[in-house]
């Protein structure tokens, strides 16, 4: 997982307590196959989620996620498809990891609200794409690996 605008070990602490007002994606993308998503925070900052394809050996590639902190949040412009998240105050953030015989792949993020709802971003099976599931069940997860192979792990400095 690549993070811009913050140190890796600060990702969870920067998001915890923040309220996500809405998540937007470009009009020509879907929640089942996206390349960018913008989460607008009540603090005025924005967080952009994007997918990557990372070579892990030979011809094999695995999907990973990118997180970029922006201050202030950019104007919506092409971010036309917007899903409002009523009262989504972040309580915890986890990296979704898949363990392979040779690699450990950070292939997604799970963001939990104080009321137990969750927002999921998972790298997809198309290079550079990801899918997402909103707290209200809107969206479509198309993970690269079988869902049961993912595990949540806390974000640390590794």
What is the compact description of this entry?
With 158 residues, the protein is mostly beta strands.
Folded structure, characterized:
- This protein is mainly beta and 158 residues long.
- The protein has one domain (2-154).
- The chain is built from 1 helix and 10 strands; from the N terminus they run E-H-E-E-E-E-E-E-E-E-E.
- The protein has one helix spanning 11-15; strands at 2-4, 19-25, 36-41, 46-57, 60-70, 81-99, 104-113, 118-123, 130-133, 150-154.
- Strands 1, 2, 3, 4, 5, 6, 7, 8, 9 and 10 form a 10-stranded mixed β-sheet that branches.
- A hairpin with a 4-residue loop joins strand 3 (36-41) and strand 4 (46-57).
- It is globular.
- The model has no long low-confidence stretch (mean pLDDT 85).
